[in-house]
Amino acid sequence: MSVISRGFRGRGRPDVNLPPGQYLTKDFPVLSAGPTPRIDLDRWKFTLTTESGERREWNWEEFLALPSEKVTVDLHCVTKWSKLGTTWEGVPLEALLDEVDTAADHALVHSYGGYTTNLPVEDLLDGKAWVAYRYDGEDLEPEHGGPARLLVPHLYLWKSAKWVNGLRLSDEDEPGFWESVGYHNYGDPWREQRYWGD
Ligand SMILES: Nc1nc2c(c(=O)[nH]1)N[C@H]1C(S)=C(S)[C@@H](COP(=O)(O)O)O[C@H]1N2
Ligand SMILES: [Mo]
């Protein structure tokens, strides 16, 4: 089947689906900077805060009631593995951002456990980012970010914060966890933006 040979054309030449410096993997490695938090769905919350201090909150039940999408995307980790054709279900970020009044350019995403990552608001819009709660047809497993994680497949996977619990919109860019210790502020795999200065 084409799925199996999709990453290579001919003699091991990477095809267009593989950004520079990446190799293909079929398993789904787990990369976490700390322990996997266990989050009780009764207490789970997602909080959106705007640059003016407006807040919007969803509990788990409310979140599941939001319109969701099923997407198939390729994942690219800065440690050089890529996994192609992964399927997810989640809420597109624009469905959340539509609910507040904002003109902010920057977002800082935060997670249970304290992880943060920053990205431009425009990278969250137009079908580029989701808060995903299902992977491969199943509820998202805790080690991969369940109950819910950010999914921003066009950037390196560290931007896809696991155990996500909110988003702070701001006029100023603020580096997140990895961005503040040397990883690229934007992290485009196609331009190989791995570290500061790339
Ligand atoms: N909350 C949180 N999210 C996180 C991380 C983390 O340590 N904590 N690691 C990031 C990194 S570096 C990667 S490569 C991906 C890994 O996702 P996976 O474990 O589902 O493969 O999660 C990202 N999101
Ligand atoms: Mo990573």
Overall shape: it is: globular
**Span between N and C termini?**
37 Å
CATH class: Alpha Beta
Bound molecules: ligand MTE, molybdenum atom
Q: Summarize the biggest pleated sheet.
A: 6 strands, mixed
Please bin the fraction of helical residues.
under 10%
Number of domains: 1
Point out poorly predicted stretches.
1-11
**Rg for CA atoms:** 17 Å
CATH fold field value: Sulfite Oxidase, Chain A, domain 2
Secondary structure tally, helices: 3
Determine the strand fraction and express it as a percent band: 25-35%
- The structure class reads mainly beta
Number of strands: 13
Average pLDDT, to the nearest integer?
93
What order do the SSEs take from the amino end to the carboxyl end, as H and E?
A: HEEEEEHEEHEEEEEE
List keywords for this structure.
single chain; 198 residues; mainly beta; Sulfite Oxidase, Chain A, domain 2; 6-stranded mixed sheet; 5-stranded mixed sheet; globular; binds the ligand Nc1nc2c(c(=O)[nH]1)N[C@H]1C(S)=C(S)[C@@H](COP(=O)(O)O)O[C@H]1N2; binds molybdenum atom
